[in-house]
């Protein structure tokens, strides 16, 4: 029997044509690759935030790493006080490089990351610790890169402790001690220090994500314009959560949920938390079962072997850049689907998404797009 699990919530998948790191750890509760009920994901993120807040009650600045930890970071920050400031790193071109700190994530398929710097010095000056949030920390190399560059770019950061918070931490105790000498500390939900990840499945049975809908000629669906707060620049948690509630109001107003028992709420790449927040509101206010996950830049192999986490997957056009690929995994059938994105209207992305959701026999499909 093949083993595709590190432990129960964390599954192991094979990246598609990535020579830098062959595997991917897939968190089944995170709302990225695997559909999840919104309450389970938000509870996980909130548990991390509560843990941080108890130990560092004067911390008021949280930075979430793109793309997978954008929702985790916001969910954690939401437990740290309404005036906690939140922002994410980004790989998008919506922010000029001259306004940003640039750093590299060497193992990733998209190595360049940016952190918006304007006003950040003042926010650092008003917090006791700086909280950096990622989904997984394995060696800490990316973490060390950004901390060193942040301290070099912003003198106020040099005297601050940095707390690296994550759902999963695989840094060994010896490595953690070395980080502590640099005034960097770790908080996590799951600890697997030194755990070796090995692909143990039959890799010959794995395939590429499907191109079936990549260049679909489907007619363009209707789009409902919405306002989505841009967390790539600092925003208070109170303002961000208020925007998500207002977004849920618009979604409920413009969707026909009569006779809908299950709904899929999809986010796009870095825009994850608004989809989770809306899905939670749909459950509580409309009394339907909601599921949530998001498109991703990560190309991952598909397999039907029992226990392998990626049972289906599709290559699509990105809502952010028509020349870039994006992917969606483990699509199932629902009574309705709601897509939420802070990207502007992308015709290729809309056509491919509409064709895919229709082919999955989802009868009601709605698209809510923000202005970039």
Describe the structure.
It is a single chain. This protein has 372 residues and is an alpha/beta fold. It folds into 2 domains: 152 residues, Rossmann fold (3-Layer(aba) Sandwich); 163 residues, Rossmann fold. The chain is 26% helix and 27% strand. It has 8 helices and 18 strands. It has a 6-stranded mixed beta sheet with strand order 10-9-8-4-5-12. α4 links the parallel β8 and β9. α1 packs across α2, α1 packs across α7 and α6 packs across α7. The chain is globular, with a radius of gyration of 20 Å. The N and C termini lie far apart (48 Å).
Tally of strands? 18
Give me the secondary-structure category. Answer: alpha/beta
CATH topology of the largest domain: Rossmann fold
Helix content: 25-40%
The number of domains: 2
User: Which H/E pattern describes the elements?
Assistant: EEEHEHEEEHEHEHEEEHEHEEEEHE
Going across the biggest sheet, name each strand in turn.
10-9-8-4-5-12
CATH architecture of the largest domain: 3-Layer(aba) Sandwich
Low-confidence stretches: none
Gross geometry: globular
How many helices? 8
Terminal CA distance reads 48 Å
CATH class of the largest domain: Alpha Beta
> Assembly type of the shown chains?
single chain
Whole-number average pLDDT? Answer: 92
Using only CA atoms, what is the Rg?
A: 20 Å
Beta-strand content estimate: 25-35%
Main sheet: strands, sense, barrel: 6 strands, mixed
What are the key terms here?
single chain; 372 residues; alpha/beta; Rossmann fold; five-stranded parallel β-sheet; 8 helices; 18 strands; 26% helix; 27% strand; globular
């Amino acid at each position: 029997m093949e083993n595709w699990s590190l432990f129960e919530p964390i599954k192991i998948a094979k990246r598609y044509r990535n020579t830098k790191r062959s595997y991917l750890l897939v968190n089944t509760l995170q709302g990225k690759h695997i559909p999840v009920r919104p309450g389970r994901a938000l509870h996980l993120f909130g548990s991390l935030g509560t843990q941080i807040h108890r130990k560092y009650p004067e911390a008021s600045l949280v930075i979430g790493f793109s793309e997978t930890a954008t929702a985790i970071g916001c969910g954690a920050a939401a437990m740290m006080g309404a005036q906690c400031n939140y922002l994410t790193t980004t790989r998008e071109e919506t922010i000029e490089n001259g306004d940003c700190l640039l750093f590299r994530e060497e193992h990733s398929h998209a190595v360049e990351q940016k952190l918006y710097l304007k006003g950040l010095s003042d926010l650092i000056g008003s917090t006791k610790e700086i909280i950096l949030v990622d989904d997984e920390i394995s060696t800490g190399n990316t973490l060390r890169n950004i901390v060193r560059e942040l301290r070099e770019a912003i003198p106020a950061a040099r005297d601050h402790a940095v707390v690296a918070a994550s759902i999963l931490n695989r840094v060994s105790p010896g490595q953690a001690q070395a980080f502590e000498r640099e005034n960097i500390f770790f908080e996590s939900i799951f600890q697997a220090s030194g755990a070796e990840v090995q692909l143990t499945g039959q890799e010959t049975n794995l395939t590429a994500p499907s191109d079936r809908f990549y260049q679909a000629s489907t007619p363009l669906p209707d789009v409902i314009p919405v306002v989505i707060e841009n967390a790539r620049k600092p925003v208070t948690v109170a303002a961000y959560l208020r925007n998500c509630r207002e977004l849920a109001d618009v979604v409920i107003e413009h969707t026909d949920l009569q006779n809908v028992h299950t709904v899929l709420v999809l986010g796009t790449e870095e825009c994850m938390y608004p989809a989770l927040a809306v899905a939670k509101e749909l459950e509580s206010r409309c009394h339907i079962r909601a599921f949530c996950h998001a498109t991703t830049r990560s190309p991952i192999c598909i397999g039907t072997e029992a226990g392998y986490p990626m049972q289906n997957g599709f290559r699509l056009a990105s809502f952010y850049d028509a020349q870039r690929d994006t992917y969606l995994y483990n699509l199932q059938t629902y009574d309705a689907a709601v897509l939420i994105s802070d990207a502007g209207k992308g015709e290729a992305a809309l056509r491919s998404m509409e064709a895919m959701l229709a082919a999955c026999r989802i009868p009601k499909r709605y698209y809510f797009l923000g202005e970039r």
